[in-house]
Design goal:
By secondary structure, the chain is α+β, with helices and mostly antiparallel strands. It has helices at residues 41-49, 57-68, 71-74, and strands spanning 8-11, 14-17. It is elongated. The protein starts with 7 loop residues before the first strand and ends with a helix.
Length: 78
């Protein structure tokens, strides 16, 4: 089995590759197609606006303090 990732767009009911396909697939050969949709910038912004939903002011301050303390993420630098 050969596995290859191909960037494509979906238009008019057909997947159109964005680059030349470097693998020969005989006409009529069954293949397995796994579709992974990319989120739009609007989707990302919507998620970002909801990041603190349901949290108290104290919880938000604690999260922001941890995020600003690089040592929490990277450890102490020597």
């Amino acid at each position: 089995m050969i596995t290859q990732t191909i960037d494509a767009v979906y238009e008019d009911g057909v997947f159109r590759p964005l680059t030349d396909i470097k693998i020969a697939i005989p006409k009529g050969r069954p293949i397995k197609l796994q579709v992974e949709t990319l989120e739009s910038p609007e989707d990302c912004l919507t998620l970002a606006t909801q990041v603190y939903d349901g949290l108290s002011e104290e919880e938000i301050k604690e999260i922001e303090a941890i995020a600003m303390n690089r040592a929490e993420f990277f450890g102490e630098r020597k």
